[in-house]
Predict the structure.
Amino acid sequence: MKTICSLLLSLLPFVGTAQESYTSKVWCPDNGDGTYTNPVINADYSDPDVCVSPDGNDFYLTASSFQCVPGLPILHSRDLVNWQIVGHALRSLYDGDTLLQQHFATPRHGAGVWAPSIRCHQGEYYIYWGDPDYGVYMVKTRGGNPAGEWEAPVCVISGKGYIDTTPLWDDDGRCYLVNGWANSRAQFASVLTVRELSADGTRAIGQPVIVFDGNGTENRTCEGPKFYKRDGWYWIMCPAGGVPTGFQLAMRSKSPFGPYEHKIVLAQGKTAVNGPHQGGWVHTAQGEDWFLHFQDKDAYGRVVHLQPVDWSSGWPIMGSKGEPVTTYRKPKTATATTIVNPQESDEFNTPTLGKQWQWQANYDEKYGMPTAFGTMRIYTHKLAADWQSLWLVPNMLLQKTPADAFTATAKMRFTSKADGQFGGIIMMGRDYSALVVRRMGDSFQLVQMTCLGADKGKAQTEQVLATLKPTLKDAIDYKPGLHEDIYLRLAVAHSTVTFAWSLDGKKFTPCAETFKMREGVWIGAKFGFVAAETNPKADRGWVEADWIRIGPQK
């Protein structure tokens, strides 16, 4: 573990400063020559939406977070190419509602926050989203800083089936809301509805009106609508035709309640960018127009692309004549911008958790916390007596995959207080595989745990790879801990994971069994740390993560 001197030195740059800039070693869209290469965010920021600051020079992005906590990630950019995670708008699901907070204390895969929209209105930033089980919710900033504190969420409309919500404050101060519908809850879909909200956007004051119906046409599965006004026209931009196979529609009307005429403005065409699915349009201070959208990449999740927008025809034709671009010139900016990427590696040297990390359910302090020793501690979760897989473990500390190919190496110590306790690293989705150390008597086993069909209740299988002597055993007689210092690694390429381990951090032994990644429920596979146990009466053991470093595939 880190020495006290090295820890104090590492903490100095963080005292009184914002999160330092981070440059990825595995994916950087900025080519350094005035151009960029898509995706601009090669990670699972599903259903992205973006807005511009009042001066037109700062851009803020949010995305679906479903059951993961903290929720509603906030990313910042000065040029729409270089993005940094600066915070989260949602501390839990849902602050202020005790019953729902308890409901989301258990992983509710695929539930929670669907397809948010972010807008700036009268100096404050607002995010709306649909929770398909509970209704339309809104959060707003406290003081107009998206990277700062957000107020507790407000339920704007209560009920089932509401998804993909976007507000529009009109020139006269009236507020309208467009939304889609989840067939799994409402038993109908492929329609968009508009209703009026109160001027402060906190409640519905009008009844919904169906303004677009894609049923029985190529525009089936129209969803994810974003609401705008430009040159006297009301615009709704949304995808249709299905997530991996669809396209972007633009609709316009002289009334928020329609009728709307529509046109396909972005489609895959002859490119390799399938979808292309929902996103958001922005107009910059330099007079340019851009559109951010996602592409579904199966196990890697939904990555974010940037397209130029041409309004010369009166319609927002995106990309290159309606097809996605791969490489293009960067947007113009007021000042030069620096290369920065969403954080991946973590030295765990600060007293706050890195912004790339999320838990699988509402946070409980017994899951774990940062330490003053330059580590992150994750305590073992008590598994049910009849457990078969790790599907419902809430205290997994996970992050999104950052590239198609990468290596993640973690230095950690596992401390055990009783037999059966285990901890290590995991690639988690509907299927998962983990490499852990598990205590057995006075030694540890190195075990690969794999489950195919965790989402369907299938049981995991185990392969014991080695027996390890403990690094250290507490000398005291009172509840002594048994410790194992180890380096664990996972390497990803072509959606395949290969695990490896080392006792000295230099010579790694690969595990023979590879694992094929699989997406989670509406999200990509995620990787990170897991700690659990089968003894309900024992004191908890823990993973003490010293660092995790993301680099090119080894």
The chain has three helices and 38 strands.
